[in-house]
Design a protein that fits this description.
single chain, about 250 residues, alpha/beta, Rossmann fold, SIR2/SIRT2 'Small Domain', 2 domains, six-stranded parallel beta sheet, three-stranded antiparallel beta sheet, 10 helices, 9 strands, elongated, binds zinc ion
């Protein structure tokens, strides 16, 4: 990692009035969260088509039986997961008034655990549940209690609608209000900082492009090359934690 590049990123962020952050899976890798889509990962052993929103609507009991079986066979302990230096650096930048909004593709809730407040979760959150009918959000504990104490499928106490985790499932549209807010933040910022995302899938790919089209500078931090490296002002191919710590130290120090 070249210190020139970190310094260039520090200068850009310091010279900006409204910095928006964007994070993908690479921001959580150092917290030990595996890439479930990698070979041998969870989605190699299960058929994603069994877990679509359509499968839940078609046969909710079968959906939940498979879901619970998958949970039992999952070695990964979500309760042991903690924020890493990249989450902490982004929270510190927000607390100092440098970062206005954090858009994330991650569903792990680690940004909020680190203290970030204005977080837009494009793919929802695994720390909450929701009703598919009245769209009410519930604590995850309520869903878990229903799964153990009540017959399948778990249903909403208010409207009897089907409950599910508040993550965006396969085949489910992204939450419209979150997506609109993210696009607005990308449009209005003057510096867009992306961390740990290859930026190859939508809507991730379009966010930095929207920012760039509207005059924002782009800073890319990712282990691998991304789809917007050629348009970025600063590109740092490195791990997120150390890079973000140095960036936050440089900006706030
Ligand atoms: Zn409901």
């Amino acid at each position: 990692m070249s210190s020139d590049t970190i310094e260039a990123a520090v200068d850009l962020v310091r010279g900006s009035d409204d910095v928006v952050g964007f994070t993908g899976a690479g921001a959580s890798t150092e917290s030990g969260i595996p890439d479930f889509r990698s070979p041998g990962g969870l989605w190699d052993r299960y058929d994603p088509s069994d877990f679509t929103i359509q499968a839940l609507r078609r046969d909710p009991v079968a959906y939940w039986e498979k879901r619970l079986e998958m949970r039992e066979n999952q070695e990964f302990d979500w309760n042991a997961v903690e924020p890493n230096p990249s989450h902490e650096a982004l929270a510190a930048l927000e607390a100092a008034g440098v970062l206005s909004t954090l858009i994330t593709q991650n569903v792990d809730g680690l940004h909020q655990a680190a203290g970030s407040e204005n977080v837009l979760e494009l793919h929802g959150s695994r720390r909450a549940a929701k009703c598919l009918h009245c769209e009410r959000r519930l604590p995850l504990e309520t869903l878990d209690r229903k799964l153990t104490e009540e017959p399948l499928p778990p249903r909403c106490d208010d409207c009897d609608g089907l409950l599910k985790r508040a993550t965006v499932s396969f085949g489910e549209a992204l939450p419209r209000d979150v997506l609109m807010a993210a696009k607005r933040a990308a449009t209005e910022c003057d510096c867009f900082l992306t961390v740990g995302s290859s930026l190859t899938v939508e809507p991730a790919a379009s966010m930095p492009r929207i920012a760039s089209r509207n005059g924002a500078s782009l800073v890319v931090v990712n282990l691998e090359p991304t789809g917007i490296d050629d348009r970025a002002d600063v590109v740092i191919h490195a791990k997120a934690g150390e890079t973000l710590s140095e960036l936050a130290d440089g900006v706030l120090g």
